[in-house]
C-alpha cells in the first residue's frame, strides 16, 4: 500500500510541479504528517525532491528529473474506464488506481497533448445523480465490484419490499442508473437485478464461477428496463387532451413525454387523442386530476369515475375551512 502511494506521490510531483503538503494530502487522502514521512522516504531512495518554505512554497522535484515508471499496474488497468470520473472511481473503490493511471497517461503524452487533455477534464463534468436526490449509502459497492471483476460468488442479505432474505449469487455486472447503483447476478436458474443500496450484509466467498459467455450487460440491462416499465404500467388510458394539457403532461416523466410524442394529430382547437400507460386506477386518476379541464377520459370508465369521485371529495373538503 505504501509503495503504491509513494509512486502516486512521485507521479504527482512530476506531473504538477510544486505542491504543498496540504494539496498532496488531499489528493492522496492521507494526513500531512504521512506526506512528510513519504517525502523523506523518496529522498532517502535517491529521488531529488526538495521543499520551499513560505507562501507559494511546497515540494517539487529537481528540474529535469523524470521517472520512467509509467507502466500500468493491474489495478490501474482495471480502473482505466473510470478515468476522468473521480466520483465513479471512488464509489467503486478504485479511486487511487484511477488517479495513478491518469497521471501515468498524462506523463506519457507530449506537453501540447497533455494540455489538451487537461483542458477537457477541467471543462466537462458528469453528474449522474438526479435532481433533489440524496445519494443512498452503498457501503458494499467496492467489495461487490471486486467480486464482479474476480468472478467470485457472494452471499448477501437483501431487503426488498417483500422483506429481508438471504441470497447466494454470481455477480455479473454493475450499472449506475440515475444516481443509483444496481447489479445483475445469476441465481440458480436466471439472472436478476438487485439494488446495491438495499444490501444489508455481504460476504465475498472464495468460490469462483464461470461467467456465461453469452451474457452481455448492456443488452441485458436494456431488456430488463423494457420489461420493468411494462410491468410497472401495464394498463392504458385513452385520453382527449388539449395542447396545454399535453404540454403539462409531457413534464411528468419520460413515459408521459413519450405518450405525448406519439399522440394523434390535433383538431382545429388543438385537442388530440393520446394513449397513456398507468399503474393503477388511483394513480391515473390522481395524475389526470392535476390537468384539470385540459383532459377528457375516453376509456377506461373506471378512471373517469374515480376522477369524479376525487373531485367531489375535494369540493366537500374545501367547503369547510380547517380548524
List keywords for this structure.
single chain, 323 residues, alpha+beta, Arc Repressor Mutant, subunit A, SH3 type barrels, Alpha-Beta Plaits, 3 domains, 5-stranded antiparallel β-sheet, 13 helices, 10 strands
SSE layout:
Elements: H1 2-16, H2 21-28, H3 32-44, E1 49-52, E2 58-61, H4 74-78, H5 86-91, H6 95-108, H7 111-123, H8 141-150, E3 152-160, E4 163-177, E5 180-186, E6 191-195, E7 199-208, H9 217-232, E8 235-241, H10 243-250, H11 254-261, E9 272-278, H12 281-289, E10 295-299, H13 301-319
Antiparallel strand pairs: 1-2, 3-4, 3-7, 4-5, 5-6, 8-9, 8-10
Helix pairs in contact: 1-3, 1-6, 2-3, 10-11, 12-13
Task: Describe it.
The chain is 45% helix and 23% strand. By secondary structure, it is α+β, with helices and mostly antiparallel strands. It folds into three domains: 2-123, Arc Repressor Mutant, subunit A; 141-215, SH3 type barrels (Roll), CATH 2.30.30; 235-319, Alpha-Beta Plaits (2-Layer Sandwich), CATH 3.30.70. Strands 6-5-4-3-7 form a five-stranded antiparallel beta sheet. It has a three-stranded antiparallel beta sheet with strand order 9-8-10. The longest helix has 19 residues, at 301-319. The protein is elongated.
N-to-C series of helices and strands? HHHEEHHHHHEEEEEHEHHEHEH
Total of helices: 13
Biggest sheet, spatial arrangement of strands: 6-5-4-3-7
**Class by SSE composition:** alpha+beta
Shape: elongated
- Please estimate the helix content: 40-55%
* N/C terminus separation: 66 Å
Rg, rounded, reads 28 Å
What ranges have pLDDT less than 50 throughout 5 or more consecutive residues? none
Largest sheet: 5 strands, antiparallel
Strand content: 15-25%
Amino acid at each position: 500500500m505504501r509503495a503504491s502511494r509513494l509512486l502516486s506521490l512521485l507521479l504527482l510531483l512530476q506531473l504538477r510541479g510544486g505542491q504543498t503538503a496540504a494539496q498532496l494530502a488531499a489528493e492522496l487522502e492521507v494526513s500531512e504528517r504521512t506526506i512528510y514521512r513519504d517525502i523523506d522516504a523518496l529522498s532517502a531512495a535517491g529521488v531529488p525532491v526538495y521543499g520551499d518554505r513560505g507562501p507559494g512554497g511546497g515540494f517539487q522535484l529537481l528540474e529535469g528529473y523524470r521517472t520512467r515508471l509509467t507502466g500500468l499496474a493491474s489495478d490501474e488497468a482495471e480502473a482505466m474506464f473510470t478515468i476522468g470520473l473521480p466520483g465513479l472511481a471512488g464509489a467503486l473503490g478504485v479511486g487511487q488506481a484511477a488517479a495513478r493511471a491518469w497521471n501515468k497517461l498524462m506523463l506519457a503524452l507530449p506537453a501540447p497533448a497533455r494540455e489538451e487533455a487537461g483542458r477537457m477534464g477541467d471543462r466537462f463534468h458528469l453528474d449522474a445523480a438526479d435532481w433533489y436526490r440524496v445519494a443512498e449509502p452503498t457501503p458494499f459497492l467496492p467489495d461487490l465490484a471486486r467480486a464482479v471483476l474476480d468472478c467470485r460468488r457472494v452471499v448477501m442479505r437483501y431487503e426488498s419490499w417483500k422483506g429481508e432474505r438471504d441470497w447466494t449469487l454470481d455477480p455479473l455486472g454493475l450499472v449506475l442508473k440515475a444516481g443509483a447503483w444496481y447489479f445483475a447476478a445469476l441465481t440458480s436458474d436466471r439472472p436478476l437485478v438487485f439494488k446495491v443500496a438495499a444490501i444489508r450484509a455481504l460476504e465475498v466467498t472464495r468460490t469462483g464461477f464461470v461467467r456465461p459467455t453469452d451474457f452481455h450487460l448492456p443488452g441485458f440491462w436494456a431488456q430488463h428496463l423494457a420489461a420493468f416499465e411494462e410491468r410497472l404500467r401495464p394498463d392504458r388510458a385513452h385520453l382527449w387532451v388539449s395542447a396545454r394539457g399535453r404540454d403539462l403532461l409531457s413534464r411528468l416523466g419520460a413515459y408521459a413525454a413519450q405518450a405525448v410524442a406519439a399522440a394523434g394529430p390535433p383538431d382545429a382547437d388543438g385537442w388530440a387523442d393520446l394513449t397513456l400507460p398507468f399503474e393503477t386506477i388511483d394513480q391515473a386518476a390522481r395524475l389526470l386530476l392535476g390537468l384539470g379541464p385540459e383532459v377528457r377520459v375516453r376509456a377506461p370508465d373506471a378512471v373517469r369515475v374515480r376522477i369524479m369521485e376525487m373531485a367531489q371529495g375535494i369540493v366537500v373538503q374545501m367547503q369547510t375551512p380547517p380548524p
